[in-house]
Amino acid sequence: MTYDFSGQVAMVTGAAAGMGAATARAFAAAGASVVLTDINQDAVEKAARELSERGCQVLPLACDVSDERQVAAAVDRTVDEFGRLDMAFNNAGIMIPDSDAADEPAEAFDSVMAVNLRGVWACMKHELARMRRQGSGAIVNCSSLAGLVGDARRASYDATKHGIVGLTKSAALEYAPRGVRINAVCPGTIDTPMVERMIDAGELDMDAALAATPMARLGRAEEIASAVLWLCGPGASFVTGVALPVDGGYTAR
Questions:
Q1: Catalytic: 3?
Q2: Cα angle 198, 199, 203; round to 5
Q3: What is the dihedral of CA 148, 39, 96, 162, to 10 degrees?
Q4: Separation between Cα atoms, residue 167 and residue 48, nearest integer Å
Q5: Which residue range or ranges hold the Ketoreductase domain (predicted)?
């Protein structure tokens, strides 16, 4: 499936690696101007440089999504640079070590909430403020299969991903009459640097992950990017408020 996003502007958070980087590449390949944001300034500049060398129009920005002021500044910079904001993939997120729910420290709960849930809320808030004025736009929030089902020892992480689905559905209802569509993508276990770190740390059992996935493999970051572009594109023009699983069949069980 190919897209023509020429003349449109996309913002991707957590764009330095994994699903964010793959989605930024896909938007750029489809002709969009792309704003790449990430907390890791060196990494996001490297990712943007690779796209720029291919002739793509990109803007790298360092941004900690847990800080609403930085999010607001990133959206303002996007509009200052390109004049508009048409699409956004709110992908930045973190994982915390698994824990018995009775033992998890409050600091772990606060940190995952600040990035995964508050970060998506802040991004969506400031993106919508711009899209409301335009009367158009498409936002995709990154939830997870953990936003659709529970997972023992990951209560706090799962709460953030369930919360993203709630934010998405409620905001979609509010903005449907205003020309802005808001959806969520719910990835399964995807072959990304974060998943590699979890495997290396013994926090994810590869054999168990494959056994729980009917397609019996990890997903690819490019497969999430494909779903995001479809949700932002004209083929999904009557789709809003959806939490789309891209999980190899995991949640179909």
A1: no
A2: 55
A3: -20
A4: 29
A5: 8-188
pTM of the model: 0.98
- Tokens 């992950």 correspond to 209
For 26-81, the pLDDT digits (tens) are 999 999 999 999 999 999 999 999 999 999 999 999 999 999 999 999 999 999 99
CATH of the domain at 162: 3.40.50.720
Domain count, the chain: 1
**In this structure, what are the phi and psi dihedrals at residue 34, rounded to the nearest 5 degrees?**
-125, 130
Rounded Cα–Cα distance for residues 215 and 219 (Å): 9
Catalytic residue among 3, 157, 175, 250: 157
Q: How far apart are CA 120 and CA 231, in angstroms?
A: 17
- Is 197 part of any domain? no
Residue listed under structure tokens 């990109």: 58
Identity of residue 234: P
Q: What range defines the domain where residue 82 resides?
A: 9-190+221-245
Distance in angstroms (rounded) separating the CA atoms of residues 108 and 46: 30
